[in-house]
Amino acid sequence: MKKYLLGYDVGSSSVKASLVDADTGLTVGAAHSPAEEMGMLAVQPGWAEQDPALWWEHAVKALQGALKQSGVDPGAIAAIGISYQMHGLVCVDKNQDVLRPSIIWCDSRAVEIGKDASKALGEGYALQHLLNSPGNFTASKLRWVKLNEPAVFDRIDKVMLPGDYLAMKLTGEVVTTASGLSEGMFWDYQDEAPSKRLLEQYGVPASMLARQEPTFSIQGKVRPAIAAQLGLTAGIPVSYRAGDQPNNAFSLNVLNPGETAATAGTSGVIYSVTDKNAYDTRSRVNTFIHVNDKHPAKRNGVLLCINGTGILNSWLRKMARGEGDLYGYDRINSIAAGAPIGAEGLTVLPFGNGAERVLEDKNINSSFFGLDFNQHSQAHLFRAAQEGIVFALKYGFDVLQEMGLKTQVIRAGNANMFLSPLFREAFVNTIGARLELYDTDGSKGAALGAGVGAGIYGAFEDAFRGLKLIRSEDPVAGKADAYAAAYDRWLKQLQKQIN
């Protein structure tokens, strides 16, 4: 009987489900929900929350869509994998009921808590043991709950990440991974266990952490009641879970030192694999356990994140609408191409989606500089925004270079902002590396990971038989010079804002 793999990708904008033919590695059906973007709750400036029940609702709808599109017999689904937005905090009680909305990745409320903890623990300890400062990650968000919502904290039985929540809904098991604990900033790399000192500093009992299982393993099975709700067969194993960026790298077969992956969705990320416990002394980029750690050697991923990337393009798209006429991204890209490189002096800083780690947790918001009402058009505005996003990625990429993480090729999925010819041109000519785009995405990567975890694939290379290169682009000398000049102007403007 033919086998299929189900992969989920729980994003902050939507939930996507993909069904992959286990034999060919090709996607046979995919759907996302909702059609437009999921909302975020922002009770105060800098806050960002989502109700986990929304993720479950849209996971159900996305699966229904993927099954309908593919015509796959649900009884042929052999394993489930989950990718998810990183760093979110989900708190549940002993009945597995959610106690409050999830504090998600771009929420900035715990920045000062992380800074205080770093000082209390000692900068040397934080960098050598956690490879990062505690920052605004999941552990610090949990500390915020303890300090500000003690009645909620007292009822917490377990804390988990967004992907752990979806797996719990499917299986009834509260499980996480070492990679997940590292992204929450709970992991001690020297002890190779949850950090006792950080838990003590934050007043968090170790019993609140979910049970740890290997990334590729059978972590639970779909329970009968949920199987009936979804139209699936009870007992399907959930055999893989990973944060969206480690999973994106996995989906691109980025598993070894020197290999680099990128994404440009709501946020933008460059993620390089290393075999060292590497860290930036200013903690502007972050190190997490990669999905294939100990298979068979040490593997960490160093992650540069820019919060305000695709969300800036989305914001401009909404602002550009006429009488009921919402611009499509193709139209925006076409208009932007009408302006020259550098947008004739118009400069955009895209940092409008919370505190930016690469700016040492500063929240400087997004800014537009040099706008001339008599010179600049909509085309200049659209181009300057895309260039500003690329320049922010370049700023962080240079931090990775300083750490010795050199790369000549960056792999990405053929999706989101990489669909824009202008964005791709700006990216390769500013970064100075070849860009390779593949026919994959987070939900497909999660499906392939499930195949590995369930033993359907005997080796990683078996999972990537269907991975196809769609296009590649290289820097062009004349354009690279023009982008370098525009980046220099952009960098000077950024430095004025952060100094």
Shape category: globular
Oligomer description: single chain
- The portion of residues forming beta strands comes to 15-25%
CA-to-CA gap between the ends?
63 Å
Structural class: alpha/beta
* Main sheet summary: 7 strands, mixed
Question: Going across the major beta sheet, what is the strand order?
Answer: 16-17-15-14-20-21-22
Tally of separate helices: 17
Number of strands: 22
Mean pLDDT score = 95
Poorly predicted residue ranges? none
Q: Residue share in helices?
A: 25-40%
Supply Rg. 22 Å
Characterization of the model:
By secondary structure, this protein is of the alpha/beta class. The protein contains 17 helices and 22 strands. α2 (111-121) packs across α3 and α12 packs across α13. The mean pLDDT is 95.
Topology:
Blueprint: E1 4-10, E2 15-21, E3 27-33, E4 49-50, H1 52-70, E5 77-84, E6 90-92, E7 102-103, H2 111-121, H3 123-130, H4 138-148, H5 150-155, E8 158-160, H6 162-171, E9 175-176, H7 178-183, E10 187-188, E11 193-194, H8 196-202, E12 211-212, H9 224-230, E13 238-243, H10 244-251, E14 260-264, E15 268-274, E16 286-289, E17 300-306, H11 310-319, H12 329-336, E18 347-351, E19 365-369, H13 378-402, E20 409-413, H14 421-431, E21 434-438, H15 442-453, H16 460-463, E22 469-473, H17 477-498
Parallel strand pairs: 1-5, 5-13, 9-12, 14-20, 20-21
Antiparallel strand pairs: 1-2, 2-3, 4-7, 6-8, 10-11, 14-15, 15-17, 16-17, 18-19, 21-22
Helix pairs in contact: 1-6, 2-3, 10-15, 11-13, 12-13, 13-14, 14-17
